[in-house]
Write the structure tokens for this entry.
Amino acid sequence: DGGITQSPKYLFRKEGQNVTLSCEQNLNHDAMYWYRQDPGQGLRLIYYSQIVNDFQKGDIAEGYSVSREKKESFPLTVTSAQKNPTAFYLCASSVGTGGQYGYTFGSGTRLTVV
Amino acid sequence: QKEVEQNSGPLSVPEGAIASLNCTYSDRGSQSFFWYRQYSGKSPELIMSIYSNGDKEDGRFTAQLNKASQYVSLLIRDSQPSDSATYLCAVNRLRDMRFGAGTRLTVKP
């Protein structure tokens, strides 16, 4: 079955540590996105990529980094520079660019700082 | 002004009633509009998309779009307890999508 796989489902980060969240899709979608969701808030865009080897900053990119070396994969690294990383992270993909036909979401990664 | 605004709720309706969820957006250039359902602790699931003015029906769900008023709504008929979730309104931009904060709906048996 086609879909988006995010791993791990739960992740615990120590202060000063970098962690990487995995996102893989087998939908042959061109565009991929990373959003962050905090309790009671909407989704905020971290980074997006419309083509391999290219990506753009979203609204809250500080403290995060991404890569897009393969069409299927769009990993997100939460660096130690991100001071408040505890949140629910969602990866999404879309046909074409801009999400004009909607997004497909992965199941999410819940990151907690310990 | 937020790009996509929704009443945060919570909205509570009895089982079998019609639930009405509303959303306004600021970008007049937006062409695609979506409703996602998100159960607690889960990721959003696309339930409706609408691209032109008027109504679009799919089962118990009806999406309504009025581009002149920059207004999108979702009606859920014959509401069921399983409809209890947060509903996110989303509006596309040129390269990504903007989401509202969501309206939490509770359907009471």
Observations:
- Residues 12 and 112 of chain A are 5 Å apart (CA to CA).
- Chain A touches chain B through 24 residues (CB under 8 Å).
- The longest strand of chain A covers residues 43-51.
